[in-house]
Design a protein that fits this description.
- The chain is of the alpha/beta class.
- The protein has a domain of 129 residues: Rossmann fold (3-Layer(aba) Sandwich).
- 57% of the residues lie in helices and 14% in strands.
- The protein contains nine helices and five strands; from the N terminus they run βαβαααβαβαααβα.
- The longest helix is centred in the C-terminal third of the chain and has 15 residues.
- It is globular.
- It starts with a strand and ends with a helix.
- The structure holds adenosine-5'-diphosphate.
- The site of adenosine-5'-diphosphate has 16 residues, from helix 2 and helix 3.
- The site of adenosine-5'-diphosphate (ADP) has 16 residues, from helix 2 and helix 3.
Length: 185
């Protein structure tokens, strides 16, 4: 079973790499951002509640995202594993996930931190031009990333679950590093 969590700033390349590796290993790529954006588009109850947070670059309240993740990880297609992209984003969400995996009799995941300098990340997001990729919203997402999500680097480091990969290379080079890495673990 392959269970992988991607950490990294917005624009670090988590989504691209998670998608490529998920296809390679034939396991689902579970992106909380993608699930939320499609819920918003379809105007589901979750989407209606999440919209203002996503549009302004704030974190959606954890209970909503946690319920969504719990439901998703129980689907049949996760029997060979999964790649989580965008979750957990806070220490509380990480504790929730630890408890959920225990409840499901699963061990911890391997956590990959895609490391990319801030100036590179901002440039990439401005090029991407998603609805929440305006300069002001990007600045807010980066601040929240620094304050809420970077503590997870220590959290998983202390638990010996963390690997750091240089994300400031071509997408192909990052993919190749990631494939090498999992061969040895
Ligand atoms: P990025 O990593 O590029 O910022 P994502 O697609 O991962 O983009 O997330 C987009 C938005 O979805 C976030 O700004 C936030 O509003 C919401 N979101 C995604 N995952 C979570 C989460 N685990 N907890 C709270 N909000 C989340």
């Amino acid at each position: 079973m392959t269970r992988i969590i991607f950490l990294g700033a917005p624009g670090a390349g988590k989504g691209t790499q998670a998608q490529t590796l998920a296809e390679h290993w034939k396991i689902p790529h579970i992106s909380t951002g993608d699930i939320l954006r499609s819920a918003i588009k379809e105007q589901t109850a979750l989407g209606v509640k999440a919209k203002s947070f996503v549009d302004s670059g704030q974190l959606v309240p954890s209970e909503l995202v946690q319920d969504m993740v719990e439901e998703r990880l129980q689907k049949a297609d996760t029997s060979s594993g999964w790649i989580l992209d965008g979750f957990p984003r806070t220490v509380d969400q990480a504790t929730f996930l630890d408890n959920l995996l225990k409840k499901m009799n699963l061990g911890g995941a391997l956590v990959i931190n895609l490391d990319v300098p801030d100036d590179v990340v901002v440039g990439r997001l401005l090029e991407r031009g998603r609805k929440d990729d305006t300069e002001e919203v990007i600045r807010r997402r980066l601040e929240i990333y620094r304050s809420e999500t970077t503590p997870l680097i220590d959290y998983y480091g202390e638990r010996k679950q963390l690997v750091v990969i240089n994300g400031n290379q071509s997408a192909e080079e990052v993919t190749s590093n990631l494939k090498d890495l999992t061969v040895s673990c």
